[in-house]
Design goal:
alpha+beta; Tick-borne Encephalitis virus Glycoprotein, domain 1; 3 domains; five-stranded mixed beta sheet; rod-shaped
């Protein structure tokens, strides 16, 4: 009779563990990247039990939890550093020196410029030697300036011929020197009467001539061999830079009024780190205040032979079981899924299913408790029978 109480006790403990698993699932229904689990039960087999039958099932045991690795819900956040994996793969992160794997992509750069997740774990990339390395952006990094080499113009340069010739001017043409400083140039155009214009370039700050040349128009459009002029510009304290003034397809010389203006120039000042984003292949893009951008490290993804190779490590992360192997690669390559920025993978917990499991565990616990109560009553009945003899 005592073995019946042991059977009932195993039922209490097993369903208690199952209830703990269900409760943990429900508690994490809104946890990013969380993977629900289900308790796995098996019957105990006690060969010493039974009456000459050679064995008998005696209670239950919990084999552990089976993790559900199905993808969770798609949650839009608008944060360019939030990432969701579309397909196979896990992000690799380092926590206290241990490499863990997660589908939770709520990332940000910490104060030292290291890419971390919400738990503070370092998000990993592959270095030049194929090893795992932190993804880092130096917040003090600078984008070096670039001197202007080409200025593009647009608009009309009046073809009207005045006698004597009257110069037409375009003032305040901005260029940048090698040190990143901005300077203004003034241009003067003198119509020669045959479609040609003599051009004089002066430094607006010093009113000194820095370049001359000739441009020519045929039928109101720039002649292919005379549509630009080149000069060397050396502001005080800076090395000389060759600058080309280009009067291309966007420039005309018609009888209408002069509307000529500088459309663009290819120089830029120094810039500081302004923003970081991660694109669909996991490459970090760094944008500077001067409008320039560079590509940084590329996040690594991990994959495994089977889900059973992973065990729950908490914080929506998983550890690799001893003896299992991991394969590293990049998003969109070699069977790995792509990435969607501005989105997160939510929990994959099905609340309806979990509430059903909640009832099942409760009923199982009640049934096991009734087994114990009934066995206790039977034992008490035996004691009462002996006392009445």
């Amino acid at each position: 009779m005592l073995d019946i109480i042991n059977i009932g006790t195993s039922g209490l403990l097993g369903n208690e563990q199952g209830l703990r698993t269900v409760g943990n699932n429900l508690a994490n229904v809104n946890t990013t990247g969380f993977k629900g689990a289900q308790a796995q039960f098996a019957s105990l087999f006690d060969q010493s039990a039974g009456m000459g039958t050679g064995g008998n099932s005696s209670g239950m045991e919990v084999l552990g939890n089976s993790i559900n690795f199905q993808a969770g819900s798609n949650q839009s956040t608008g944060n360019p550093l939030d990432l969701m994996i579309n397909g196979d793969g896990f992000f690799a992160v380092r926590h206290d020196g241990q490499v863990l794997y997660t589908r939770s992509g709520n990332f940000h750069f910490d104060a030292s410029g290291v890419l971390v997740n919400a738990s503070g774990d370092h998000v990993l990339a592959l270095d030049g030697n194929g090893g795992l390395a932190d993804v880092k952006v130096n917040p003090e990094d600078r984008s070096m300036p670039k001197a202007t080499t080409t200025v593009q113009f647009a608009g009309n340069l009046s073809s009207t011929v005045s006698t004597p010739a009257v110069a037409q001017t375009v003032n305040g043409v901005s260029v940048i020197d090698a040190g990143g400083a901005t300077h203004n140039l003034n241009l003067s155009f003198t119509n020669s009467g045959d479609g040609s214009f003599a051009v004089t370039v002066t430094d607006a700050a010093t009113n000194t001539q820095v370049g001359t040349g000739t441009i020519k128009f045929t039928g109101g459009f720039p002649a292919a061999d005379s549509s630009s002029l080149k000069f060397s510009y050396a502001p005080a304290g800076q090395t000389a830079t060759d600058i080309t003034l280009s009067f291309g397809a966007n420039v005309t010389s018609l009888a209408s009024a002069t509307t000529l203006t500088s459309m663009s120039q290819d120089g830029y000042a120094a810039g500081t780190v302004q923003n970081q984003t991660i694109d669909a292949d996991g490459v970090v893009n760094i944008t500077y205040s001067n409008g320039q951008s560079v590509k940084g490290a590329r996040l690594v993804l991990a994959n495994f032979r089977a889900p059973e190779d992973l065990e729950d490590a908490g914080r929506s992360a998983f550890a690799l079981k001893s003896g299992s192997a991991v394969q590293y690669g990049y998003a969109g390559l070699g069977g790995f899924g792509g990435l969607t920025s501005g989105h997160l993978e939510g929990s994959n917990v099905d609340m309806a299913e979990e509430f059903s499991n909640l009832i099942v565990m409760q009923r199982g616990y009640q049934a096991a408790s009734h087994v114990i109560s009934t066995a206790n009553d039977m034992i008490q009945e035996l004691f009462d029978m002996k006392g009445n003899r």
